[in-house]
User: What shape does this take?
Amino acid sequence: MKGKRWAVLTSYGIVLSLLLSACSPGTGGGSNTEEASRPPDEGQHSQQYEADPFGTYDPPVQLHIARPVDQSWTYPGGDSIEDNIWYREYRNLLGIEIIHDWTALPGEYNRKLNVMIALGSLPEMFSVSAAQLKGLADADQLEDLTKVYERYASDRTKKLQMGDGGAALASATFNGKLLAIPIVNAPIYEANLLWVRTDWLERLGLPEPGTLEEVFAIAEAFAKEDPDGNNQADTFGLALNNYLYGGFASLTGFFNAFHAYPQTWIKEGNGQVIYGSIQPEMKHALGKLQEMYKTGQLDREFGVKDSNQVMEDITGNKLGMTFGANWNPYVFLDAVRHNPGMEWKPFPVPSVDGMPAKASVGFSASGYVVVRKGFEHPETVVKMLNLHEEVVHGARRGEGEFITMEGDGGERINTSRLSIVQSGVSNEDVAESLSLLREAIQNEDESLLKDALTETDKYGPALDYLNTGNMENWDVAHQYFGFEITMDHYSGDRLLMTAFGGQTPTMTEKWAMLDRLEKETFTKIIMGAVSIDEFDSFVKEWNRLGGKAILEEINEP
Assistant: This one.
């Protein structure tokens, strides 16, 4: 999310209070050493002491890791990737000393890790993708974290991890064993909304869209009635990019209007998982898109235009309606600055039959952190996540909530990326925070945000725009308007999160081919290069080339 800045505070008083509050009754007062707190089934220590989410190892333990490191990262004076504010906190507060076995650029990390996995040369802790997690789990190379998570995870960490109903944790569990700590995110941010140029609506005397038929009428008018007033037939009704899906110029919201959920694993009432892109509702929606393309409502060159090129067309006054996420105003901002009077407004996605449309979104785990099998202190991964949650969301948030470190040149540096084990916020956290944000803005009372975990930085700019119309805050305010639509229409069962976030053996081998087949076929159908009945052939081919096998693997008991 744009403008996210997390604080890392290291004052002695805060650290001391956290240490003291973390002491468990059986540790003998303030000594509170990890040597005295590990249960017998997690090492060789006595069972008389309870596990402590913030217990300090004394003497310190060394933790060998691998991690991606971006060359563009900057550090405050004297700091580096080997010695920084997070690593010092791990050492001073938890007694964990970080040692890099190796680092790699973000684009090279997975490639290098795959080589290390093949060689059997693994660090003690490292991050993995869903596919890598599956392979390592099958090879029995990962430590079982089930008991250490139960014993060491703080209440705040457990709340975060269950903010999606436990889906992320389930995806990290194999044969009843928790083999990874999921990096939990909030897919609610992905929900496609309908964004419309209301200045064009006013110019053409059109009502704001409330039904799907009205959306189609707007698309036709935008394409045929010269909404930009230049007396040229150079505008289109709906923006879309050649990737088809995503958060901007996307068809995901369009398909959702037809109760179709592309690239989504959907759990039916009987518990079986099906694939959204091969369901009959998709054919109906594709047929309508083919009709819109044929009548000139879609850019005839959309198949070769990426999101950047679509944005250029928006700036050039060629497009006035698109499906996309709440953050689209940041993309629109340049066009708004170049076109005085341009105004965009978000709307909920109407449905083809009047039944509420659901918003399909991705999985809540964007990655995983794992521990090599046999490492003596597997609980370190949980302890570091506990610390991250306290610094970002917990007792240590208070002062300078969005303060970052200052570099030698006076620039503000986001230090949260240096944290080894971290998560974002869950759907539940976001929903609570957005409700508090709306209440604070409506009452013009910033103190109401004290319990919000995210989006508190939107308060000032959004309120300023609402009160003064200050265009410097146009983007933030319009994202807030998108938040309001999301809150009112895409919570609870109106948010359809994909039901499967892992990797199956066939998926690892065949998914790239199946994904390419889907997008190429759908593009041809939309452009009229093939009949709409090609969809039926696509479904058969998708199943034959591996899709059926993937579904069988997902649905294995």
